[in-house]
Design goal:
GO terms for molecular function: fimbrial usher porin activity. The protein is mainly beta. It is built from 3 helices and 54 strands. The two termini are 34 Å apart.
Length: 828
């Protein structure tokens, strides 16, 4: 009988709980006699009689504005005098984040000594609170807002993040031993960025270090490659950067300098007005370390397995030529260059993109060389399809100026043409020359193909870039210094892709083509050819069989470096594949069979064996692990009668703020990230398990795209039985380099059936609320004090409220067991 009564009382609690989360008409009168409770005089249903009634107090809520999440904050509900009501005190600093039109913003009224804002005068404006779910929803018609692009978050809603410290780094190591020698070579290198965020300023220092050891010989060095600070300026779609940096210009060639740079940042524009990031492709003959550098400064470093590789996560701000070095495990090194020239310089009508920089060149180390300079370039959208651009670089003995015209050809693509004149005064001569450039890009949707970039440039013999001027000046001043950059004549560059039979997965073939040709007035030409194609098809019951071919040739100083790789893989079981590779490097031919295991996406590995053209055996192994605290690539190789080698790369980062510290993966040195707080609960999986909270309930998401709306999700299906989350998804748009902070309200604890008693032995009225320290309702009191609590921890204090105010407090016993029925005294 007791069990039956308990079930009936619990059912009543559940019904009222559902009622509490459902809109109720204003001033509803309840018939308490219809409830199956013992004493109908002890009932508190006042909060259900008014639609959306919220008890006065301060609540930590997520702000949802027009379906877009804003950062969590404290929201206060004030008591209305002489009434059982409360009213929302909307913080006035939320109004600018709504991006209201100027005439609409004037309708907002401030009250409570300007501490609260009232938006009720805005036509169609609505506010609704779901306190139980921790959300305040604000809806305003699109016609009242400045912007009308649902796929773009306006600058007013960007989050500058919180103060904090960070360290992002990549460590690579390799040990090589020649078979015919006792010599063992060890090499360790590290690159990374350390920094601090103060308000909207991002302070950064890039570093690189190497250590080489062979027998008793050892050399090492450490250097701060760049020390700088930058400030995003969202309302101006620009960025201010001071310190050591590379010139980021769409007109003039890049060079390193120390000074200041103020430039438009196209990443702050809507997606269809943004550019692209450079991509590096090549073939590794064995497990190899690939480093990408510019001006001697390493920008990216990683370990790749044997075969074709692609690096596509470089910064979109990289300009000019990149030097790529591939270090094989047998000690051999191959190099090539990649041109990162951008698509035609076009600007939307009426908009001006600008770039202003001043300082002194800093070519080697911290030493300032060359003249003090000032440069400025711009692009002006003069009409729907036309853009005028140009600029000048003024530096005393070196000056240059440029002018160009860009044209949107609609279905024919986009084209730009420009001319640059340089004037360089050297100790023994004066050089004056011109350079002409044509850029083209086109996406052929109907043919599933794209010319990512096609360019041609011709420079006269006496045309000089700032880099050439600086190195010529330095070599004249120091005969022992071997610095040289060839005098360019002609350059052809093309990057294109094509998908054949894209409508049929079983027949589709994707082809990539890269070609660059560079001739010089004073040295031999160099060429880089790249081709790759891939096809996925089915053979009978065998699905997703893959065939790919890659071929690259680099011609430099009269020498050719050729690489061809033919790959065939087939599935065997769930996420396992067998493969065969035929690879040639110049005249060396290798046949390799491989086994790949992707059973655990976070732990993948590959083993392979084969023979070369001399019938010498080889063995290789490659292991990749992606974890919350970093990413590891490890490799080992053995070549009969040649060498044995082991190596690897570990990329990680550490971020610290007032909310905690966490190690995490490193997706870009010093880049944008989210710090996630799971209320001290560890092991909470986030974003499909890509990361999880540490022992202190802190995690960091590092693969965040600046100025783009980002969803962060808790994997509710992977939560432990004693863990609950109120809102599993949060959103945010961060400015560049920001450390965003998002708090998930996660409850970890027992489920208890409690009976709450007051000091005089009576019970709280039916319908009273039980709230935790953050103001979230944990439960509702039923008949005779029966209350079902979830997610409560030992010794956790809980408030019991009725009649619109907090009345007393209960404390969860230390020894309480899950699903146990306990007595909870409620004390003042």
């Amino acid at each position: 009988m007791t069990s039956l009564m308990t079930r009936k009382k619990t059912s009543t609690i559940v019904i009222l709980s559902l009622l509490y989360g459902t809109p109720v008409s204003a001033e509803i009168q309840f018939n308490a006699g219809a409830l199956d409770i013992g004493d109908i005089t002890k009932v508190d249903l006042s909060r259900f009689s008014n639609a959306g009634y919220i008890m006065p107090g301060t609540y930590l809520l997520d702000i949802k504005f027009n379906k877009r999440m804003l950062p969590q904050r404290s929201i206060e509900y004030l008591r209305v005098a002489d009434k059982e009501e409360s009213t929302l005190c909307l913080p006035p600093d939320l109004i600018p984040q709504m991006a209201l039109k100027e005439e609409i913003a004037k309708k907002v009224v401030l009250w409570q000594d300007n501490k609260c804002a009232d938006i009720s005068a805005i036509p169609g404006a609505e506010i609704s609170a779901h306190i139980g779910n921790g959300v305040l929803m604000i809806t305003i018609p699109q016609s009242s807002l400045k912007y009308n692009d649902p796929n773009w978050t306006p600058p007013e809603q960007w989050d500058k993040g919180i103060p904090g410290l960070l360290l992002d780094y990549s460590i690579s190591g390799q040990i090589n031993k020649a078979s015919n020698s006792q010599d063992t070579t060890r090499r360790i290198s590290a690159v990374g960025t350390t920094g601090a965020n103060v308000n909207s300023w991002r302070l950064r220092a890039d570093f690189q270090s190497t250590m080489n050891q062979r027998e008793d010989e050892r050399d090492s060095n450490f250097a701060w490659s760049n020390i700088y600070a930058y400030l995003p300026l969202p309302m101006h779609a620009a960025k201010l950067k001071v310190g050591e940096q590379f010139l980021d210009s769409n007109i003039f060639d890049s060079f390193r300098f120390a000074g200041a740079n103020l430039a438009s940042d196209e990443r702050m524009l809507p997606p269809d007005l943004q550019g692209y990031a450079p991509q590096v492709r090549g073939i590794a003959r064995s497990n190899a370390k690939v480093s990408v550098s510019q001006g001697g400064i390493v920008l990216f470093e990683t370990t790749v397995p044997a075969g074709p590789f692609s690096i596509d996560n470089l910064s979109s701000g990289v300009r000019g030529q990149l030097d790529v070095k591939v270090e094989e495990q047998d000690g051999s090194i191959s190099t090539f260059q990649v041109d990162t020239a951008t698509i035609p310089y076009l600007t939307r009508p009426g908009y001006i993109r600008y770039n202003i920089a001043t300082g002194r060149p800093s070519v080697v180390g911290r030493k300032l060389e060359g003249p003090f300079f000032t440069t400025s370039d711009f692009s002006w959208g003069i009409a729907n399809s036309w853009s005028l651009y140009g600029g000048a670089l003024i530096g005393g003995d070196y000056n240059a100026w440029s002018v160009g015209l860009g044209r949107d050809l609609s279905i024919l693509g986009a084209l730009s043409v420009d001319m640059t004149q340089s004037y360089a005064r050297l100790p023994d001569e004066t050089n004056s020359g011109m350079s002409f450039r044509v850029n083209y890009a086109k996406r052929f949707e109907e043919y599933d193909s794209q010319i990512t970039f096609a360019g041609y440039r011709f420079s006269q013999r006496k045309f000089m870039t700032m880099n050439q001027f600086l190195q010529k000046t330095e070599s004249d001043n120091n005969n022992e210094l071997e610095l040289y950059i060839g005098r360019e004549k002609e350059q052809y560059t093309i990057a294109a892709s094509k998908t054949f039979m894209a409508q049929d997965k079983g027949k589709a073939i994707t082809v990539y083509l890269n070609y660059s040709h560079q001739t010089y007035w004073d040295s031999r030409s160099q060429d880089r050819y790249g081709f790759s194609a891939s096809k996925i098809f089915d053979i009978g019951q065998m699905r997703d069989v893959t065939v790919s071919v890659s071929a690259f040739r680099t011609e430099l100083n009269g020498l050719s470096d050729d690489s061809i790789s033919l790959n065939f893989t087939m599935p065997i079981g769930d996420r396992r594949r067998l493969g065969y590779t035929l690879q040639t490097n110049n005249n060396d031919i290798t046949n390799v069979a491989s086994y790949n295991d992707y059973t655990d996406p976070s732990n993948t590995w590959q083993v392979s064996s084969g023979v070369n053209q001399n019938s010498k055996a080889l063995l290789r192994g490659f292991y990749s692990r992606n974890d919350s605290f970093g990413d590891l690539n490890a490799s080992a190789s053995y070549q009969q009668d040649s060498f044995s080698s082991i190596g690897g790369t570990f990329r990680s980062g550490i971020t610290a703020t007032q909310h905690g510290v966490a190690a995490h993966s490193n997706n870009g040195d010093g880049s944008t990230r989210f710090m996630i707080d799971t209320d001290g609960v560890s092991g909470v999986h986030i974003n499909n398990g890509r990361t999880k909270s540490n022992l202190f309930g802190i995690a960091v998401i590092s693969d965040v795209v600046s100025y783009s709306n980002t969803d962060t999700r808790i994997d509710v299906n992977k939560l432990a039985d004693d863990v609950e989350v109120i809102t599993p998804v949060v959103q945010g748009t961060l400015t560049e380099g920001a450390i965003g902070y998002r708090h998930f309200e996660v409850a970890k604890g027992s489920k208890l059936m409690a009976i709450i008693k007051l000091a005089d032995g009576s019970t709280p009225p039916f319908g009273a609320s039980v709230l935790n320290g953050k103001g979230r309702e944990m439960a509702m009191v039923g008949d005779e004090g029966l209350t079902y609590l979830t997610g409560v921890e030992a010794e956790e204090p809980l408030d019991v409220a009725w009649d619109g105010k907090h009345q007393c407090k209960v404390v969860v016993p230390k020894a309480a067991k899950s699903l146990e029925q306990i007595l909870l005294p409620c004390k003042l």
